[in-house]
Amino acid sequence: MVDPWHIEPLDLTIRLVLALLLGGLIGLEREKNNHPAGLRTHILVCVGSALLMLLSMYGFSAFVDEGNVRLDPARLAAQVIPGIGFLGAGTIIRNGFSITGLTTAASLWVAAAIGLSVGAGFYYAAFLSTAVVLISLWTLNIVEKKYFENRRTYWLKLVTNQKHGTLTHISSNLERKGITIRQISMEENDWESEENAEKHERLTLSILIRVSKPSLLITITEEMKLLPGIEKVSVESA
């Protein structure tokens, strides 16, 4: 009769190495696309989850015959998922209206689940989940780049010493190129000229724009610099 509370060293080794490989495959895709959590992070999450699953199932076998001890193989493993939530939260970054890192946080969560599956010997589910995750990440990445490129937003920031008519010129130039303006904010600042010690008004414009092609940003920047009164132009990812 097979002892359910005992595991051979070879089987234990196979499970940990398998967790390393499966977690590494997901991490490799994230690493390739320059995301915060890459190859090493996913390997550590997957192997660590598998180890905790093994520990939960087989680490307390010495207490099986104790009458007052009640073992639950899932108790320790159940704490992995909430713990991964804190790690995943560290990869989520909000910059203005844009939030990045959600996919990477989700991939860490899935890597933990795959590690738990491998640790429990649920091999088919672990392999199938890894395949589904990789196919989803690869294919959806291609689809997003091809069909959703126009959803990228940027902050166009300009500093001008002319208040009247400047915003009209800027908006008309952007509309001619098919660029959508989503938000505009203005800030007025007084500055003193070194030549005649007179105070002048300077206007800082922050315009949130949606661009269909990132290559247009160079053209926009060069044209904005030629407008009368424009002192500084910069573009930042939103």
TrEMBL record:
Name the UniProt record assigns to this protein: MgtC/SapB family protein
Chief subcellular location: membrane
Topology relative to the membrane: Multi-pass membrane protein
Cell compartments where the protein resides: Cell membrane
Ranges annotated as spanning the membrane: 12-29, 41-64, 76-92, 99-116, 122-143
Organism field: Paenibacillus residui
Domain spans labelled MgtC/SapB/SrpB/YhiD N-terminal: 16-145
Keyword line: Cell membrane, Membrane, Transmembrane, Transmembrane helix
Assigned protein family: Belongs to the MgtC/SapB family.
InterPro entries found in the cross-reference section: MgtC/SapB/SrpB/YhiD_fam, MgtC_SapB_SrpB_YhiD_N
Top-rank taxon, per record: Bacteria
